[in-house]
Specification:
The protein is mainly α and 215 residues long. Helices cover 61% and strands 0% of the residues. α10 packs across α11. It is globular. The C terminus is likely disordered.
Length: 215
């Protein structure tokens, strides 16, 4: 993006995503050196320019979650105070656990003040238990869920779409989620035990009658 395009975008953003506006801020910041200087040429305050720039400086996958509205600007401010994997971990926890901006600030303050690991502070201060994070589609551990979500966000995909794409590529089979869901629902209905049906014996450990029982 050249500097004139950046100026035009910031003066008339239209329906541009915040991360795109952040890129424009980055272009002008490199040219002009301060948000006050940029603010003199565009229709945004220095504070707003700083926030947008902060979004742009995050990893692309986290920017994508912000553009989708799952991470707020207050969260971005706290994520930006961390580095590397800690940024990803806080962003993932914000999305999964819906933690507030206030809580995220207190957590980051705790990390910086004590020098402890983010996951330990999240556990102690707001009770996030990483061994109890809701699993994804499969019974993954937290570490596996976090790794898959990070890879998915980096490709701007939700974890379910990412997992489906990975399965399709691994098996070379095109999968239709709606069809699969319909088939599973139909199968569950067929196997669901009905009250008073002597052919279905819960104590047998199976919902499907044997050949002998069905005759």
């Amino acid at each position: 993006m050249d500097s004139q395009t950046a100026r035009d975008l910031l003066n008339d953003a239209g329906d541009r995503k915040p991360s795109e506006m952040g890129e424009a801020v980055d272009v002008l910041y490199r040219e002009l050196g301060s948000y006050k200087a940029i603010a003199k040429e565009v229709a945004l305050s220095p504070g707003r320019l700083s926030d947008l720039h902060r979004v742009f400086l995050l990893p692309e996958g986290i920017r994508w979650q912000f553009d989708k509205g799952k991470i707020r600007i207050g969260h971005v401010q706290q994520i930006s105070r961390l580095q590397g994997d800690e940024q990803w971990l806080l962003a993932f926890t914000i999305v999964q656990e819906k933690i507030s901006v206030k809580d995220s600030k207190e957590v980051v303050d705790g990390v910086i003040k004590t020098g402890r690991k983010l996951r330990d502070v999240l556990n102690d201060m707001i009770g996030v238990r990483f061994d109890q994070i809701k699993p994804l589609l499969f019974p993954f551990t937290f570490e596996e869920s976090f790794k898959i979500s990070r890879a998915a966000w980096s490709k701007k995909l939700e974890w379910a779409d990412f997992s489906l794409k990975a399965i399709e590529e691994a098996t070379h089979v095109d999968l239709d989620l709606d069809h699969i869901a319909g088939e599973l629902e139909s199968l569950a209905h067929q196997l669901r035990p009905k009250c008073g049906d002597p052919a279905l014996k819960p104590e047998s450990g199976s919902l499907v009658p044997s050949a002998e029982e069905s005759t």
